[in-house]
Amino acid sequence: MDFNAFELIQTALTAELAKQGFDDPAPLEDPDGRAVMFVAEDVAYSLLYAAKRQSFVLRSTSFNAEGKPQQWRELSAWLFDMKTGERADAESIINDFLEVVRGPKRVAIVQQRKKTAKGENRVVDPMFFVNRLASLFPEIKDALNEEKIVYGQVRYITFLKAHVLPLAEDLLKKYPDSEPAGKLCELLDDMYKNGDMDLRSIVTYEFLNGLSQESWQVVQGKLEGDLKKVGGFSRKLIGKSIKPEKKKKQKGKKVEARLS
Q1: How far apart are CA 102 and CA 16, in angstroms?
Q2: Side-chain half-sphere of 178: how many Cα atoms within 13 Å?
């Protein structure tokens, strides 16, 4: 074989992941074979050649609150014989691995993070809201990292319903007068006041409407400004099917058509 398959795949991944803010690959000790790791903030990818399996493996992981990596999750694996494998086979592996790490909208998200870090074009959007919730509920950080790795973005509504609302319910019911409960309501007020249209909709129709009546009463008593009123109107729509307005028939046009 007149080429180094590992180096070829590693170079392609390095070029792509650099665009997304990942560091250059670092050697990684792995009992299964040669491996490198690409790190960006709280997530990482790894390229491994598993000698016994004779396979290239692309993996991902996230880091816990102590900064330690979690268990590697296999994203894609391809058989490849280092002695007989051809360059075309290695290029097929590259194409597949690149498709995985790009993911839906991943590059755009990373670029937006860079702008936010520099103070440019700061937008209070759903991602900003979710990050603030992660500070309030540290328990969701691992799930949030996994969401970013698997989907390349955060499915805001699905994530809120699955991971945030149960914690909010527990907090508001057990500790309604606590400081964290007050901070949650302050956050909701702030996000509705300064958020874009998507975030406003998520705060009202997904978050507030997703609370039980008992929890809503706690929140309502702590909200201030426009959200307190809007939240009340929004809650009245729970369980109702809203149909689009029907267009009125224009009789005049029919008469004109007949005369012509």
Answers
A1: 8
A2: 12
Q: For tokens 């894609």, name the residue.
A: 76
List CB contacts of 21: < 8 A, sequence separation 6 or more.
Answer: 40, 41, 110, 113, 114
Query: How far apart (Å, rounded) are the C-alpha atoms in residues 112 and 116?
Result: 6
Q: Express each pLDDT in 174-186 by its tens digit.
A: 998 898 998 899 8
Is pTM beyond 0.85 here? no
Tokens read off for 205? 């129709």
Token reading at 24: 């250059």
pLDDT: is 252 or 172 the higher one?
172
Residues listed for the chain: 260
Q: What is the pLDDT of residues 144-197, one digit of tens each?
A: 888 877 777 788 899 999 999 999 999 999 998 898 998 899 889 888 888 888
Kindly list the strands in the beta sheet with 26-27, ordered across the sheet, starting from the edge strand earlier in the chain: 26-27, 33-40, 43-50, 55-62, 73-79
CA distance to 2, 51, 75, 256, per residue, from 48 (Å): 21, 9, 11, 74
Neighbours of 108 (CB within 10 A): 12
CB environment 216-230: b (16+ within 10 A), e (fewer) = bebbbebbeeebbeb
Q: How far apart are CA 257 and CA 115, in angstroms?
A: 57
pLDDT for res 103: 67
The alpha carbon torsion through 59, 62, 68, 74 (nearest 10 deg) reads -20
Letter string b/e over residues 127-161, b meaning 16 or more CB atoms within 10 A of that residue's CB: bbbbebbbeebeebbbebbbbbbeebebebeebbe
Which CA distances in Å does 230 have to 5, 102, 179, 189, 194?
59, 39, 24, 11, 15
The Cα-based distances of 84 to 2, 57, 96 in angstroms read 10, 18, 20
